[in-house]
Each structure stands twice: as C-alpha cells, then as structure tokens.
Specification:
alpha+beta; 5-stranded antiparallel β-sheet; Rossmann fold; 10 helices; about 30% helix; 2 domains
C-alpha cells in the first residue's frame, strides 16, 4: 500500500474512530448516572420548627431521659438525628442518646435500637445557639413508621440551658423518665408526659435515586392544630401517605415546619417566617420543594391587636421575599391559598378583603412556581367565606381531620416529579 493510500485510509477511519470514542464516552456517562442513582444520600424524613420557651416546673428536665416519638415519612437503611440548642443561652449537655422503632406508647421494639454517638462520642455538649448532628447508625426505618429517640440530660435544663428549644403543640405524646439514664430501655419508666418536642428538630435517612424532601412552611393549619392527637392527621402527614401509596411517583419525604400562630411579618409564636426561613427551610437536607401556607395570622391579628395591623401589600412583599430566597437555593416554591375564616375571631370585612387580595396574588401573579388552592377545596360553595361544615373543626379557623385530608388530596403529586425525572 502506498503512502497516498494509507493517508486515504486514515482520513476515512478517523471519523469512525471518533464516533466510537463519543459513543463509549456517552456509555460511560450513562453508567456514571446510574451509579449515582444507586448511591445513597441523606434526606430529611421528619422535622419540626423550634421556638424559644421560658423554663418552668413543667419543662425542667433534671437528670432524666426524654423519649420523643416521631412519625417519619420516607424510610431508609441508615438514620441520624439533629439536636438543637438554638435558643439556649448556655451549653446543653446530652449524656447519652438512642434511637429505636417504637412499638406502642413508650415501648420500643426489642432489638431494634441503636445507641447514637456524636463525632464518635457517646455524649456531647452543644453550645448555645448551635445544633449537633449524630453519627449515622444502621436501622431499618420503614416509611410512615414511628421512631423513638431518647436523650439523657444529666443536668437541670431549667437552671443551665434557659431558655429551652422546643416545639409546642406537637400533638404527639412524648415521655419523661424517672431520674436516671434510661436510653434504650424497652420498659421505659414514665414519670410524666409532654405534648412538645424538646431539643429534637430533625431525623434524616439514607435514600437512593432522586429522593428528595418537600418542606411545608406554615402556621397552625400546617402544624395540624385541632387535628386528632397521636394520630398524625395533619395535612402534611396525609400528603406523605399519598406519596408513599403512589409508587410511580418520585420518593419524597414531607417535612412539617409549621408553627401555630406564626406570621410572615411579625414575631409572636416563633420568629416570623422571613426570619426563620434559613434555619427552618433552607437547611433541610435534600429539600427540593417548599409549600408556603402563611399569612392568616398576619391578617387576623388586626382584630386582636390593632397596633399590629399590616396591609395586604406588605404581606405580598413578604411572600415575594420567601420566594426569592428559596429560588436562590434552587428550590421549587409552591404557594397555597389561605383557607376561610368567617365565623372565627379573625373575620371582619376588612380582614376578609385582605385574605382575598393575598389569595389573588397567589393564584394569578405567577410569582410562585405552582399553586395549590386550599381555599377552593375547603370553602362552602354556598358561602365561600366559610369552611364547608364537614371540613370545619368547630372554631371556623382550623380544619377538621377530614378537612386536612381534603387539603392533602387537592395536591397534584405531579408537582414533585416521577421516577423518570
């Protein structure tokens, strides 16, 4: 073969070789994508929004063990927890910690538990204003199951940690032991019970594929006020059950960051939504979506505290701030319309006009990536400023269990993607 012929062969073969190289590279990239999908990553499966509570006889924990019950949304093979001293002005000492599957009441499933460590140590001192994340442990945490997290506090929290970091109105019975370290005890010696979560703010699990978390930012209607205690009948719980029951959809956890009485613009029951957005929304592990249901208290407080009256425009500006900050972190932000208030102490012609104005913004401004129309779903068609009677808990402000379920049923699960995304 002459040099000229060899040159012709090279000119013909080179594009074919390049195409083969490109195909091989694409195949390697596809394999890498599949490997990443198979890799486990951390996802928040339960969370609550902490507030500051002054100490008193009912909240002092002195050389006692807390057993706190949480109902997780997404399951996983490994777990870790967050313990918070966000509002403490002195260090919080955790002498020991433990996690297990809950059987019933304060009883855990025998053999299911694991001791928790922090940076390899069985105890930890959490500085004022800080959080601690436990080391991972293997635990068969099933979707929609109850976990029991034990925290042994060797000091007097009322004397050493004031004020306490809590979530009041948990609608969940939690347990305080007699004096001593009872972390991991199957037979837990209950000295008292509480319906608040103390210091515990999040549980995370390992998940695979495109699993993520939906953060629900709201007030008492998200917190589940007037739903049945110990039954997990808040609308975020109902949404989590729907997601688990739809296997074609993307695996998504639901994190409830509602605070009863919370407002967009002013502090009161917890810091205002704009102030707490970073801590309660933007730091949630693997969060991809946030549903915002906030402002009914901004509107209704006008009737209770006239000096704190705010305009609809100011509320809308606050919503725009929440949207901008969530978008800056890459979250999809979904706005939820405000539910009816006629018959409650919040109702007046002026407050109803503000509610309508805020709802019009949520529905029509296109500021949100999507809209869930909770108002349309829960209102009485014959009297749209009131709840449908079956959905009214009785105070004309908060839904009943049936009303919360209707809210969850109104959410289009396609908003969160499917397994093909």
């Amino acid at each position: 073969m002459t040099r000229m012929q060899l040159s012709r062969v090279h000119r013909v073969a080179t594009p074919i070789a390049l195409l083969s190289m490109f195909a091989a590279s694409a195949a390697l990239a596809d394999d890498a994508d599949r490997d990443r999908d198979r890799e486990a990553h951390w996802v928040g499966t339960w969370a609550t929004a902490p507030v500051s509570q002054a100490p008193g006889p009912a909240v002092n924990i002195n050389h006692q063990t807390l057993r706190e019950i949480v109902h997780i949304s997404l399951g996983g093979e490994q777990v870790r927890v967050r313990v918070s001293n966000a509002f403490g002005t002195a260090p919080l000492i955790v002498g020991a910690a433990h996690i297990a599957r809950r059987d019933a009441g304060a009883v855990i499933v025998p053999g299911s538990g694991r001791a928790l460590t922090f940076s390899g140590n069985p105890d930890i001192t959490i500085p004022a204003g800080a959080i601690a994340v436990s080391d991972p442990v293997r635990l068969d945490a099933l979707a929609l199951s109850d976990l029991a997290i034990d925290l042994y506090l060797p000091g007097d929290t009322g004397a050493t940690t004031s004020p306490l970091t809590v979530h009041t109105g948990a609608l969940q019975t939690n347990y305080v032991s007699a004096a001593g370290d009872f972390t991991g005890s199957t037979a837990f010696p209950v000295a008292s019970t509480r319906t608040s979560w103390l210091f515990l703010t999040a549980v995370e699990v390992t998940a695979r594929g495109a699993a993520g978390a939906i953060v629900t930012l709201g007030d008492s209607i998200t917190d589940g006020t007037r739903s049945t205690p110990d039954a997990n009948r808040r609308w975020p719980d109902d949404l989590a059950r729907r997601l688990v029951a739809q296997p074609g959809h993307r695996d998504m956890a639901v994190l409830n960051l509602g605070i009863a009485g919370n407002r967009v613009l002013n502090d009161g029951a917890g810091a205002n939504a704009q102030s707490r957005c970073d801590r309660d929304v933007l730091t949630q592990t693997s969060a991809s979506h946030v549903i915002v249901l906030e402002a009914i208290n901004d509107i209704g407080f006008e009737n209770l505290l006239p000096a704190q009256a705010v305009t609809a425009d100011a509320i809308i500006a606050g919503h725009r701030q929440l949207i901008a900050r969530a978008h800056a972190r890459g979250l999809k932000v979904i706005g939820a319309t405000l539910t009816p208030i006629e018959g409650s102490a919040y109702f007046a012609p002026a407050t109803e006009a503000k509610r309508q104005a805020v709802n019009a913004f949520i529905r029509t401004s296109r500021a949100y990536d999507a809209v869930i129309d909770f108002d349309l779903v829960t209102r009485d068609p014959s009297q749209p400023t009131r709840f449908l009677p079956a959905f009214d808990s009785g105070d004309h402000l908060h839904p009943s269990d049936v009303g919360y379920q209707a809210m969850a049923n109104a959410i289009d699960l396609r908003l969160f993607g499917d397994r093909g995304d």
